[in-house]
Write a structure and sequence with these properties.
The structure holds 2 protein chains of 2 kinds.
Chain A: H1 10-17, H2 22-27, E1 44-51, H3 55-71, E2 80-86, H4 98-111, E3 116-122, E4 141-148, E5 163-171, H5 174-182, E6 189-197, H6 206-209, E7 218-222, E8 238-242, E9 261-266, H7 269-281, E10 288-293, H8 318-322, E11 326-332, H9 337-349, E12 355-360, H10 367-374, E13 383-388
Parallel strand pairs in A: 1-2, 2-3, 3-4, 4-5, 5-6, 6-7, 7-8, 8-9, 9-10, 10-11, 11-12, 12-13
Helix pairs in contact in A: 7-9
Chain B: H1 2-9, E1 17-21, E2 27-31, H2 32-35, H3 39-48, E3 58-59, H4 66-79, H5 86-96, H6 101-113, H7 117-131, H8 136-143, H9 151-155, H10 165-186, H11 195-210, H12 217-251, H13 254-261, H14 271-277, H15 283-287, H16 290-324, H17 326-329
Parallel strand pairs in B: 1-3
Antiparallel strand pairs in B: 1-2
Helix pairs in contact in B: 4-6, 6-7, 10-12, 10-16, 11-12, 12-13, 12-14
The chains are: A alpha/beta, B mainly alpha.
Chain lengths: ~400, ~350
């Protein structure tokens, strides 16, 4: 039977190989005459997850990568570079610190007009981010995990960057992080998790008060660990926010004029219900709301504080009256009255609400479902679904 | 009659149907809105004005059979509806793509010739998933690929057909390794630390990439040829291990590489030596004694046989050794960080 791939042009075969890790696509060289050199034209360097446990595997790994880089036509661009690399510093003592080698690879792909970089180096410290990334004019997607950004002496310039995901990144100061964002003028999708700063500078820098990423449509911001100037993302239409009452400062919550979808993550709804209301007041066009509790510390939800008692807000947030269609409370614990009051408040005031889903993580309180079902609902078309998570 | 035709043809864009001719010559009527989802068809309508009637049906590329056209149109029909969520689209695609491999290949071909990029991506990803994790034999079987490479060809994947200096380099190093294989047979060497030699090879590769990128190899060769020849006699062992390091991961065959690794090499501090070593081209082949070639070939064949069967296993080994250590990737750093709850 004939080769069923024979009708496909080489470009398509390379495209198929581009979805494979480089190790696998190099291995296709022995398939047949036609496949012998195809892998060399694949514009993707996907080194996948590579954890080295000792000197030998480390050397073999970097030699493999160099071999691949050497075999390709140097004029051929590289579109994607992905590397998730883990090591223990005591296992690799020489000859090269992995970051030196990795930095060279990054420099190499940056020179070859890379568009997508996904880089994660896991070790006992935060390695320095290769600075060539920060001025890569062709970069469209950048995903970084576990790096420390050195003080920026030359401006960050990422004119093509549309997607930025930062996870566990250390900047010297908030200013440096803001300078980074300033260098991404057309950014559309921003995600931050555990972005920290070496020094806590004054957070009322006037220059950042009006800074805003105008093209941003989606953001996923973690405000748990460090302050983030939310003003910068206030144009987004979809936002996931990890926040706690404690992190809030004055003027912290800005009005999100375009926000239609909000994923609100906090340590406990009971403790943060006031913040939830505050946020709702600042999202006038909100249509989809997801309230999510993440237990960070044990016993947090048993903490007593003066938010314990529910107080009806002074005015109903506009989004509830006019826009909210979907509400999902995915981590209802039902241990404190305020959670229930919040849910009831939404039901009572959301005039165009169509679906309200509540997942209750507390099978020991069946009466919650009853209370919710019997509480007044503003929207005639609202469908309430209460689910007890086993 | 023609004037009536003109008045009908003019508001062309408002016509709901267009005519398409597939590879077998048959012509069919298709909703214009759906067909326009394909850039090829779009272009034909806008640039050439075809498709408005049976007589001037758009000639689709030869890879588009009626069956394939039907599939493509099904895909377009679903996706051209605006209101669908990403979840819905993904779910549809997962069901849509379930078909035998031959059809999948034909569909990729058809989608490519119609320039329908999203469908090409979908089918390509699916084909990639099929290839992923399989051995060469399995892949050949699935796609009916001819096993037309010789043992040597499989062994030397970087044959230099374009006289690329980099390929020449790698082949040179490989030849050195073959020579080393021969040496190993004669000498009983204690396995020394690899680090010393490794340092050199990586260092050279580094400087090669950074410094010599694009430089003309020729000039360096002539300058250092004599020097290298002499030095090569003395430092034979150390250079061979360089070759072994480079080839090691290429072959993915750790048993052989372990064999190569243990050489009694005299590590010298002579920087110039190692740096220039890469430039001497012609020496290597001259030095391999034809009498010993047979012995090398035998070893090479043996190596190739093992390589052919072991390659995927070696790859898997490397992959799985990475998997075991996955936990290490999330070792806490100085900060210790929280994993998000998603």
């Amino acid at each position: 039977m004939a080769d069923i791939l024979s009708t496909l042009p080489d470009a398509i075969l390379c495209h198929i190989l581009s979805f494979l890790e480089t190790k696998q696509s190099v291995a296709t060289t022995i398939l047949s005459k036609r496949w012998k050199y195809l892998w060399r034209s694949v514009p993707v360097l996907d080194l996948g997850r590579s954890a080295v446990t000792d000197q030998n595997t480390y050397i073999r790994f970097i030699d493999f990568v160099y071999s691949v880089l050497l075999s390709r036509d140097p004029a051929l661009p590289i579109q994607k570079f992905k590397l998730i690399f883990g090591y223990h510093i005591h296992q690799i003592v020489r000859p090269y610190y992995p970051m030196d080698t990795i930095t060279k690879w990054v420099d190499f792909v940056v020179q070859r007009r890379v568009e997508y970089i996904d880089l994660h180096v896991g070790t006992e410290y935060l390695p320095k981010l290769p600075i060539s990334i920060l001025t890569c004019s062709t970069l469209v997607v950048l995903e970084l995990v576990c790096f420390s950004v050195v003080e920026l002496f030359s401006p960050v310039s990422l004119p093509s960057l549309k997607t930025l995901h930062l996870d566990n990144i250390m900047f010297p100061e908030l200013r440096d992080f803001m300078l980074f964002l300033v260098g991404c003028p057309i950014l559309e999708d921003l995600s931050t998790f555990d972005v920290a700063f070496d020094s806590e500078e004054s957070l009322t820098c006037d220059e950042w008060k009006s800074f805003c990423l105008t093209n941003l449509t989606t953001a996923d911001i973690d405000c748990y660990c460090n302050h983030f100037p939310l003003k910068a993302v206030h144009n987004v239409s979809s936002l996931r926010l990890q926040i706690d009452q404690e992190n809030c400062r004055n003027d912290f919550i800005h009005t999100f004029h375009n926000l239609t979808k909000l994923d609100f993550v906090c340590s406990s709804l009971h403790y943060n219900w006031k913040l939830v209301i505050e946020v709702l007041k600042n999202c006038p066009k909100l249509q989809k709301l997801h309230l999510n509790e993440v237990e960070l510390e044990e016993g947090l939800w048993t903490r007593n504080n003066d938010n314990e008692n529910w107080v009806d807000p002074d005015f109903v947030p506009q989004c509830l009256s006019l826009h909210l269609r979907t509400c999902y409370i995915s981590s209802f614990f039902g241990l404190h009255g305020t959670e229930l009051m919040l849910a009831k408040y939404i039901l009572k005031n959301a005039k165009v609400l169509q679906t309200m889903n509540i997942d209750i993580w507390n099978s020991g309180q069946p009466e919650i479902k009853q209370q919710l079902s019997s509480s007044p609902v503003a929207s005639a078309t609202c469908k309430l679904t209460v689910y007890y998570v086993p | 009659m023609s004037e009536i035709d003109m008045s009908v043809i003019k508001p062309e864009m408002m016509k709901p149907y267009i005519w398409l001719q597939t590879s077998d010559g048959s012509i069919q009527q298709v909703e214009q809105e759906i067909a326009m989802f394909c850039p090829f068809i779009c272009q034909e309508i806008i640039q050439k004005g075809t498709g408005s009637s049976k007589n001037c049906a758009i000639c689709l590329p030869e890879k588009v059979s009626p069956a394939m056209l039907s599939l493509v149109l099904d895909y377009c029909r679903f996706h051209q509806v605006a209101g669908r969520s990403n979840k819905e689209r993904k779910s549809h695609d997962e069901k849509f793509i379930r078909m035998d491999t031959k059809r999948l290949c034909d569909l990729t071909s058809a989608a490519d010739s119609l320039q329908l990029r999203p469908l090409v991506d979908l089918t390509s990803r699916t084909l990639a998933r099929i290839i992923e994790g399989k051995s060469p034999e399995e892949i050949r079987e699935i796609f009916h690929l001819p096993d037309d490479l010789t043992e040597e060809e499989k062994l030397e994947p970087l044959k230099n057909t374009t006289d690329d200096p980099r390929i020449r380099l790698l082949n040179r190093l490989y030849a050195k390794k073959r020579k080393e294989l021969k040496e190993r047979g004669r000498l009983k060497n204690v396995e020394l630390e690899e680090e010393h030699v490794d340092e050199r090879s990586v260092d050279d590769l580094l400087s090669f990439i950074n410094g010599n990128d694009g430089d003309s190899k020729g000039s360096k060769t002539s300058k250092n040829k004599k020097k290298n020849r002499r030095k090569k006699e003395q430092k034979k062992n150390s250079t061979l291990t360089e070759a072994s390091e480079v080839k090691k991961e290429l072959s993915g065959h750790s048993a052989v590489s372990d064999k190569i690794a243990g050489t009694s090499n005299i590590y010298t501090e002579d920087d110039t030596f190692s740096h220039k070593e890469f430039d001497d081209d012609e020496d290597v082949d001259d030095e391999i004694d034809p009498a010993l070639q047979a012995k090398i070939d035998r070893e090479v064949e043996d190596f190739a046989r093992r390589l052919n069967s072991d390659w995927p296993e070696r790859m898997q080994e490397f992959l799985s050794s990475g998997q075991e250590r996955k936990s290490m990737l999330f070792a806490t750093n100085g900060n210790g960080f929280l994993r998000r709850n998603t």
